[in-house]
């Protein structure tokens, strides 16, 4: 048997280094504890033990906050790369195992109205099974065991994540076919309530701020999620400001109308991953497929080439009206 490597024997425990890397990345012992599912005290103790083992301070503790020392910052940068390489090595190793489902986290309404109805075609075309989790906002890939997250880029994306643009967002007011004649007889006025959502509370305000067509409604009603507002619009209970990607099927089937067209709102849908997307064949094929499907939906309401979005002025052009 080979003798133990004396250099390795002097290495700190991997767990302590992992705790330090997390605390350094977040700039917070509390957030490190949340990520690693341990107590704040356990994180603090691990870091103090690591500092004692290394014989150097890694953090300066000041006014309830922690700040990396110069040596701590240098160590954190090296560890970030090392743990990234370790995760990549494990991902490559697992790639040789029997194919596992691709776990995708997707914003709930996009998941319900667009992704799930289309997934059968993806499985049939590629043989890749997808397991979908409905969730929005920021995501912890390690905690949630997610391969990809589909999000709209309306929040600050963690710079350590890998992102790929899928498609532009385009919004427009939608109503039931029964409500359309009164709107056409009195342009700009829906004789119905405006349907708001808590998941995108500034949607109507953004519509006004971006100089979209003026719309008057009789009142305001608020729902928790987009899919509830869309269902209310389908039932003739109001006018929802919705994404073309969420209502495309209902428009095509004649269940909803979009009399003002759909307009870019300056945001995009993106695919996020903790690892480079092109290192995972499943993720690469899924993102390419989803991008093609969503851009095809957008193309159904795009203007002629002369009115392309590349040449769009600040106030914008409507990109399609539907009855």
Count of discrete domains: 2
Strand content: 15-25%
According to CATH, what is the topology of the largest domain? Answer: D-Maltodextrin-Binding Protein, domain 2
The number of helical segments is: 12
The strand order across the widest sheet is: 4-3-5-10-6-9-7-8
Between the first and last Cα atoms, what is the distance in angstroms?
Answer: 79 Å
Low-pLDDT residue intervals, each spanning 5 or more residues: 304-319
Strands, total number: 10
Average pLDDT metric: 84
Helical content band: 40-55%
Largest sheet, strands/sense/barrel? 8 strands, mixed
Structural class: alpha/beta
Order of helices and strands: HHHHEEHEHEHEEHEHEHEHEH
- CATH A-level architecture of the largest domain: 3-Layer(aba) Sandwich
Looking at the structure, what is the overall shape?
A: elongated
CATH domain class of the largest domain:
Alpha Beta
What is the alpha-carbon Rg in Å? 25 Å
Written description of the protein model:
This protein is an alpha/beta fold and 323 residues long. It folds into two domains: 90 residues, Winged helix-like DNA-binding domain superfamily/Winged helix DNA-binding domain (Arc Repressor Mutant, subunit A, Orthogonal Bundle); 223 residues, D-Maltodextrin-Binding Protein, domain 2 (3-Layer(aba) Sandwich). The strands form two sheets. It has an eight-stranded mixed sheet with strand order 4-3-5-10-6-9-7-8, sandwiched between helices. A two-stranded antiparallel ribbon has the order 1-2. The radius of gyration is 25 Å and the shape is elongated. The N and C termini lie far apart (79 Å). About 5% of the residues have low confidence.
């Amino acid at each position: 048997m080979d003798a133990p490597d004396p250099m390795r024997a002097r290495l700190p425990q991997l767990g302590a280094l992992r705790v330090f890397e997390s605390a350094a990345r977040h700039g917070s012992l509390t957030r490190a504890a949340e990520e690693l599912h341990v107590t704040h005290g356990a994180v603090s103790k691990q870091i103090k033990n690591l500092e004692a083992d290394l014989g150097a301070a890694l953090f300066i503790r000041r006014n309830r906050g922690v700040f990396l020392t110069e040596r701590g910052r240098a160590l954190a940068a090296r560890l970030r790369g090392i743990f990234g390489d370790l995760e990549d090595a494990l991902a490559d190793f697992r790639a040789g195992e029997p194919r596992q489902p691709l776990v995708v986290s997707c914003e709930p309404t996009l998941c319900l109205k667009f992704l799930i109805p289309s997934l059968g075609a993806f499985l049939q075309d590629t043989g890749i099974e997808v397991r979908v989790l409905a969730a929005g906002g920021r995501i912890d890939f390690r905690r949630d065991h997610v391969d990809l997250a589909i999000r709209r880029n309306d929040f600050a994306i963690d710079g350590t994540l890998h992102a790929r643009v899928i498609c532009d967002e385009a919004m427009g007011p939608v109503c039931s076919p029964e409500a359309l004649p009164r709107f056409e007889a009195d342009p700009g006025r829906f004789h119905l309530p405006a349907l708001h959502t808590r998941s995108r509370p500034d949607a109507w305000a953004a519509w006004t701020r971006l100089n979209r067509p003026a719309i008057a409604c009789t009142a305001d009603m608020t729902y928790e999620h987009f899919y509830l507002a869309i269902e209310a619009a389908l039932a003739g209970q109001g006018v929802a400001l919705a994404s073309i990607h969420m209502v495309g099927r209902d428009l095509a089937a004649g269940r909803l109308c979009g009399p003002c067209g759909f307009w870019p709102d300056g945001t995009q849908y993106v695919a996020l991953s903790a690892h480079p997307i092109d290192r995972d064949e499943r993720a690469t094929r899924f993102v390419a497929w989803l991008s093609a499907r969503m851009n095809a939906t957008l193309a159904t309401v795009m203007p002629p080439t002369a009115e392309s979005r590349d040449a769009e002025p600040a106030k914008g052009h409507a990109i399609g009206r539907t009855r």
